[in-house]
Amino acid sequence: MGIDIAHYHGWHGRLHSPWWACLAIVRVALLQVFRRKLYWVVIGLGLLQFLFFWSVIYFLTQVDVPNNMRRDMHRMIGFSPDTPDGEENGYIKFMQQQSVVVMILLAFSGSLIVGSDFRLNSLPFYLSRRVDRRHYIVGKLLAVSAVVSILTTIPALLLFFEFGMFTSSIDYWVEHWDIAVSVLAYGLALCVVLSILLVTVSAYLQRVAPIAITWASMFVMLRGLSSFLQAYNQDDRWHLLDLWFDIRQLGKLCFGRFQSEREFHLALWALLILSTVCCVALVALVYRVRAVEIVE
Amino acid sequence: MPLVDIQNLSRSYGRVQALRNVTLSLEPGTIGLVGNNGAGKSTLLKVLLGLLAPDGGGGTILGCDIRHATSTLRGRVGYMPEAAAIVPVLKGVEFVTLAGDLYGMPHRDARRRAHEVLNYVGLGELRYRRLEEYSTGNVQRLKLAAALVHDPQLLLLDEPTNGLDPEGRLAMLQLIDDLISETGKSVILCTHLLPDVERLCQQIVVLHKGTVIRSGTMESLRAAVSNRYELTWQGASEGFLGGLRAAGVDVSVNSHPNKAVVVVPSDWSTTRFFALARAGDCVLTELKPDVEDLERLFFRVTEQESSRESAQHDGASRDSGEVAAGETAAAIEEASSGN
């Protein structure tokens, strides 16, 4: 075998702080996700929903449509017919619907973004450089958060921008700045919860099938169980067992819209449960991310 | 300043003691870390790199404390792990760029440098291929490129020829050899393939069950065996070999009937070989000092260590047996006097 050896040249530069490496980890994780054609199908589904909302807002604001049809369109996207001004509920509905697509995407991409590092022994590759497990974990959490944000927060902010642009422009944005803040807060909550859960599950289970099954169990089976227990005991607090329900309550908390005092308390409980689950998952994740597998 | 200076380093995995009080002082150069599987070579590398925290002891590499200055240390050290350790879906150049980014290089520099080192290790034409398409040999080169990207002062290579075919192994050794001679970088090569170490390394550290049993240059380790000779003769063997044995020479006859490796007593004079050959009715045709290769050196020192350990173990068992017998006798005596 011939060896093509060019001359060796040294490098004399200054190294940045290892925290900068988190951005590299995010960049590479996004590359991994967006290079898989299968994931584009799921991303396409998310995009379709966004285009649907975008079109409905366009029609509502730009096209002269009959009142009954306008009411139907308002109902469809969740904006109140009486105040067709991009009220908060529309954005919650959009983000929650997008979250379904996000969950499917995450169930399949967890193995690629995180699981493969454990399965293919790539962890020493990361941790033998200047990054340690703090940087690695933050990088991976940011990577999953980026995937979540691309499909939820950013499109929701684009809808907010669109609504203002097609209606009263800057007045709408100035008067309803709190909507943008709520979207950001809910987006942040989604990112934190979903990234911690996904990275931890993927670090332990590694392969696509077990991750997808566990992910589905967490968000579908628990939902069924909580619905059953709620119906059996006639107590809506059983819904708190359902993580999906808890995340929705978190959304309501971010947008500050509650029908009753009880609903508000339920949302606070949901916040407590999600915080506990995330803390436990984070501890398990830190324990799992070690440079070297300990072999007895 | 020594390259590596560690004292009483220990590390265990549960009940298994992987490193026991390892004390080493190594000068810059090419160092071979050899030992059987499970001797603690990889563990030592990981502890040196800060991937594993030592249970006891400490030290410095390139002047950086291995317990506390791990980030600074890794900025000066390039590590090539034994495992494939690839990131799927990435292309070769992206993988090496990522390594540069993880070291903290500015992204543009990391990218440029990735192209340079990939050319250097002979993967210039494959750099835009996905990692899944790389052969084992190319993955090894890629890992070397990833270890070199930030131009480290010291390279830690963990089994760099692992899984390679003979041709690939030779090519990898040639690459490392050229790298050492061209750049003068220090290298710690961890392998159980002794010919690789013999070809590349000036200093050797022999690990056995987590302990350093020998360390030094090849010459200094060989000096301890300057009393070995290789003999070739013509004629009858019995008389000559009998004479040698009678004179206190340790004779090992190999597959050739007229050749032997002998270990002579300390006051031996080589002229006695000729005298004994004449007396045994044969002619000594070749007499040369038997230069021990690393493989034989390794087996000798590990065997010596194993014998020493078993002798210690036997001694300890005998002592404990004597103590137990003594205690039993005392107890019987006490019981009988009580009666």
List keywords for this structure.
heterodimer; A: 296 residues; mainly alpha; 12 helices; globular; B: 339 residues; alpha/beta; six-stranded mixed β-sheet; 11 helices
Task: Reconstruct the topology from this structure.
The complex is a heterodimer of chains A (296) and B (339).
Chain A: H1 21-34, H2 37-62, H3 67-77, H4 88-119, H5 123-127, H6 133-151, H7 153-166, H8 170-175, H9 177-205, H10 208-233, H11 243-255, H12 261-288
Helix pairs in contact in A: 1-6, 2-4, 2-7, 4-6, 4-9, 4-10, 4-11, 6-9, 7-9, 9-10, 9-11, 9-12, 11-12
Chain B: E1 4-13, E2 16-26, E3 30-34, H1 41-49, E4 56-61, E5 64-65, H2 70-76, E6 77-80, H3 92-103, H4 107-120, H5 136-148, E7 154-158, H6 166-183, E8 186-191, H7 194-200, E9 203-208, E10 211-217, H8 218-223, E11 228-235, H9 238-246, E12 250-253, E13 259-263, H10 271-279, E14 282-289, H11 294-338
Helix pairs in contact in B: 3-4, 3-5, 4-5, 9-10
